[in-house]
Amino acid sequence: EMIVDDIEMIVDDIERIVVDI
User: Fold this and answer.
1) DSSP string covering 4-19, please?
2) Which pLDDT belongs to residue 14?
3) Taking the C-alpha atoms of 7, 8, 14 and 20 in order, what is their torsion angle to the nearest 10 degrees?
4) Whole-angstrom Cα distance, residue 12 to residue 17?
5) pLDDT tens digit sequence for 1-21
6) Using CA atoms, how far apart are residues 19 and 11, in angstroms rounded to an integer?
7) pLDDT recorded at residue 17
8) What is the Cβ-side half-sphere exposure of residue 2, based on CA atoms within 13 angstroms?
9) Residue 20 and residue 4: Cα distance in Å, rounded?
10) What's the rounded Cα separation, in Å, for the pair 13 and 16?
11) 16 vs 5, 9, 19, CA distance in Å?
12) Residue of 6, 2, 12 whose CA lies nearest to 20
């Protein structure tokens, strides 16, 4: 299953949001 890939994508999105703040 590609659950790990989904988590990595979500983590990348979160890191971008944190950097924007």
Assistant:
1) HHHHHHHHHHHHHHHH
2) 97
3) -170
4) 9
5) 689 999 999 999 999 999 876
6) 12
7) 94
8) 4
9) 25
10) 5
11) 17, 11, 5
12) 12
